[in-house]
Amino acid sequence: MIFQAGKAILRLWLVAMEVIFKVIRQQQNSLPVVQTYPLEVDPGNTILDCLNRIKWEQDGTLAFRKNCRNTICGSCAMRINGRSALACKENVGSEIARLQQIQSLTNTENPNLEITVAPLGNMPVIKDLVVEMSSFWDNLEAVAPYVSTAARQIPEREFLQTPQERSLLDQTGNCIMCGACYSECNAREVNPDFVGPHALAKAYRMVADSRDSNTENRLENYNEGT
Description:
Layout: H1 2-14, E1 17-25, E2 33-41, H2 47-58, E3 77-80, E4 83-86, H3 92-105, E5 114-118, E6 125-127, E7 130-131, H4 134-142, H5 163-167, H6 170-173, H7 180-184, H8 186-190, H9 197-208, H10 215-222
Parallel strand pairs: 1-5
Antiparallel strand pairs: 1-2, 3-4, 3-5, 6-7
Helix pairs in contact: 1-3, 4-9, 9-10
């Protein structure tokens, strides 16, 4: 099965293909609708490349966010075939191969090459793939995500860290605040007062930062409410 999946992936990467993009479109305070766009693409094209072409060549009214195109800014986060991801990172060939592997494992067949794109979850839709992220940023602000020391003023010298101290921040420090985890968070879905995983990660980063001088107060504040 693994060998067959590998052959399928190789075939996908050798030829251009026509893919049907199903875009979940929505206006504020309206029900979502599915609009389809056929597109001739190369397997290496990213989902963002394809959305750009749809907007430029087929439908200029399609709305989505983008900026760096290099998985740095997090602007182009959206749901791609049911999972939240960056459109500038995911490419057509890998996505189709992933879907075909899922179909083979579940004994389902879909002869069409289709990719469904939808807005992030747990946030209201402004238009199409653009969501209102106020709750995301407000909940981040609620954990006071700033190092609270004299380092925020002009210090006499640098506040140095050892490699071991800095290594505690590696994972949470790499977060680009794209909103993908917030979109997928089941706790946030059932409890609108929950701040979200991005805020918890930032709260941990502040507590683990050796330069912060307000750890005790932070922990007391974090323990209040949700």
